[in-house]
Amino acid sequence: MVRGSKAVVGILAGGGSLPREIADVLHAEGQNLVIVGLEGEVRPRDFAGHDFTLVNWGRIGQLLRTFKQKGVTDLVIVGSVTRPDLRAIRTDVGFWWNLPRIFRIVAAGGDDSVLRRVVGFFDSHGFVVRGPADVAPALLIGEGAYGKVAMSAASKRDFEIGREIVARLAPFDVGQAVVVANGAVLAIEGAEGTDAMLKRIVERQDSARGGVLVKWPKPGQELRVDMPAIGPNTVAGVVAAGLRGIAVQAGATLAAQRGDTSDAADAAQVFIAGLEAGAASGVTKTALKDDGEIGLAVLGALVPRVRSRGVVVVRRHVLAVEAGEGLSALVTRAAERRQWGKSKKRRGALTVASLADLDRDVITAAGDAGYEWIVASAADGAAGLRDDIRSVGMKVRIGGTEA
To answer: What pLDDT, on the 0 to 100 scale, is given for residue 94?
Structure first.
């Protein structure tokens, strides 16, 4: 265990305040620290007073060498990251030496699959990967009210629905946040993140409906490197969206800038509630052949709770799930989520509940985004749209059959 030992602890730091907060907690406990920050993600001045090195994504050799030469045994990987454009990174010998493993990480699909492989990569180099809960439990949100505002019975009912949606989507590695108001699912987090999801609700002018942000780990999520976190920005987004509060899993959610977060929630009269995990959902991952099959399975998993019109999946990674905003908005936000660089080859699928939900504008946008397929659960008499789909260079499939 890291706590109370004199082992050298390494922190691989991404963006946000949590890497510095964890460093400060460990430093106050007398731990020996070495911090490596990812270029483009961190601000070096945030780590003043600590042993800090800035590295480019492609300098894998420098990253490993820095930790090993300074005697790091235990490693904490924390902070937000954006997927880099592989053509833009600056490599070193260590990158090319580890290239086969890097490609396997990139090709893993969804974020959870990628992160599990990242943990395995550092394990194989002799580091013990520790989670924030292990090294800095003071940053966790415990059970009960995190602040002065209590959760209402109506909000608890919305929370139960949100937790169910997270569990239903767990096999597909979809985002860990859902917004529910008066029993209706207003938004499902995709690759864009929680803050952008909340902004989406504001832009749809749904802010008068109340409701709850449920920020909840997926069953089986790799919490050592992907623990849900909230902070002052989350509270601000909840307030702007007109929600009543935030529900999180007690003991499995980090509070960034703890004092500011609880003060902001109290000032706005919104609750932050830490709730028990409850019984395991029992969900299991299913082997699916391609992006279109994954999209169809996601739509099926949401029935009857959510009547989603569509899902965008690229390289087995669910980028976006529609929950009331319409297919045009779905395609637009999914197209903004670049996955490990751009490719001239068409990839991915826009999967829709019915071809009848499509129109020419959506088809054109999907073609411009570079997707290969439009896959539909049902045709519903929209045969004329198939020519429109082919005209933008895409293929169409109804269920498992190309049309």
So the answer is: 60
What crossing angle do the helices spanning 232-240 and 194-203 adopt, rounded to 10°? 20
- Looking at residue 189, its amino acid is E
Cis amide leading into 304 (omega within 30): yes
Of 175, 181, 190, 179, nearest in space to 321 by CA: 190
Q: Pick the closest to residue 113 from 253, 211, 221 (CA basis).
A: 221
Question: How far apart are the C-alpha atoms of 40 and 347, rounded to whole Å?
Answer: 27
Distances (CA, A) of 38 to 7, 53, 247: 23, 9, 31
Largest Cα–Cα distance of the chain, in whole Å? 70
Q: Where do the domains of the chain lie, and which CATH numbers do they carry?
A: 8-137 (3.40.50.20), 140-275 (3.40.140.80), 291-402 (3.40.140.80)
> Which positions ≥6 away from 250 have C-beta within 8 Å?
141, 142, 143, 144, 274, 275, 276, 277
Nearest to 73 by CA among 121, 25, 11, 132: 11
333-352 residue pLDDT tens: 998 875 544 556 788 999 99
* pLDDT average, residue stretch 247-275: 96
Packing angle, helices 99-106 and 111-124, rounded to 10: 160
Q: Quick check: 257 pLDDT over 90?
A: yes
Overall pTM > 0.90:
no
Lowest pLDDT segment from 42-46, 92-96, 108-112, 361-365: 108-112
Residues whose CB is less than 8 angstroms from the CB of residue 139 and which lie 6 or more positions away in sequence, other chains included: 18, 21, 22, 25, 132, 254, 255, 256, 258
Starting from the edge strand earliest in sequence, which strands make up the sheet with 184-188, in order?
Answer: 144-145, 271-275, 245-249, 212-215, 177-181, 184-188
Amino acid at 123: D
| Cβ–Cβ under 8 Å, residues 348 and 394 | no
How many whole angstroms separate alpha carbon 328 and alpha carbon 319? Answer: 14
pLDDT at 82 over 80: no
Q: At what angle do helices 258-268 and 232-240 cross, to 10 degrees?
A: 20
| pLDDT for residue 206 | 58
**Dist CA 105 CA 117 (whole Å):** 6
Report residue 200 as tokens: 């989406």
